[in-house]
Amino acid sequence: MSDLKKYIAKRKKTDNEFSENLENGYQEFKIGEMLKQARKETGLTQEEIATAMHTKKSAISRIENHAQDIRLSTLQAFAQIMGKELKIQLV
Fold first, then answer.
1. Cβ distance 81 to 47 under 8 Å?
2. How many domains does the structure of the chain reveal?
3. Residue 47 belongs to what domain range?
4. CA-CA distance, 58 to 66, in Å (whole number)?
5. Neighbours of 32 (CB within 10 A)
6. CATH number for position 44
7. Which residue has the higher pLDDT, 2 or 32?
8. Residue 90 within a domain
């Protein structure tokens, strides 16, 4: 186990707030990263997505890099522009 993984495991055991914030931050990162990867796979630029969504490139960058509190309608529009279907699961 790496030093980072050891540190995270130790902090999660002793600090509930750290544990909760780490998980929330990871989920936000994961959504943004999934959107970025899908966009790149389709060969679209942030500028092209922004134009299609009637917004600015900086807004798309924010979504991809800080994906917190994204509206469902925004996720649906993003997916539709890329020719993809948005699926949400509760597990």
1. no
2. 1
3. 3-81
4. 11
5. 19
6. 1.10.260.40
7. 32
8. no
